[in-house]
């Protein structure tokens, strides 16, 4: 087991703790099958991806160089299987209270080229 995989396991354990983490849903756009016939006009469908997250209410003033503005929120999460959060900028996010946001910035934190957790900035 590598150090990165140990940190990933620790992030999963902490965020999956009901006293620490919250549920959220990322709405990703997935290219539909059959779009190859018209590669210039692919069609997409929305897919709900569950997330576990922790709101960072105090320490982050920017995410990947993007300043956190009033009304925006920053949370910490691990990447869902098969999804790169950096590719989800502009996608919809729904938090545990049913509030809808848009992903504005993502800052992955990792080791050895492996993302362990990411800061995600969302706003309206």
UniProtKB/TrEMBL annotation:
Top-level division of the source organism's lineage = Bacteria
Protein name, as recorded: Phage tail protein
Source lineage: Bacteria, Bacillati, Bacillota, Bacilli, Bacillales
């Amino acid at each position: 087991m590598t150090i990165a995989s140990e940190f990933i396991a620790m992030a999963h354990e902490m965020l999956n703790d009901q006293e620490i983490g919250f549920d959220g849903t990322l709405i990703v756009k997935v290219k539909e099958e059959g779009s190859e016939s018209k590669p210039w006009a692919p069609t997409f469908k929305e897919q709900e991806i569950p997330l576990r997250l922790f709101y960072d209410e105090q320490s982050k003033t920017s995410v990947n160089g993007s300043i956190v503005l009033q009304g925006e929120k920053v949370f910490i999460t691990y990447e869902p299987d098969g999804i790169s959060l950096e590719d989800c900028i502009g996608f919809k996010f729904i938090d545990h209270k049913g509030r809808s946001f848009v992903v504005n910035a993502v800052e992955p934190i990792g080791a050895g080229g492996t993302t362990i957790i990411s800061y995600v900035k969302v706003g309206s």
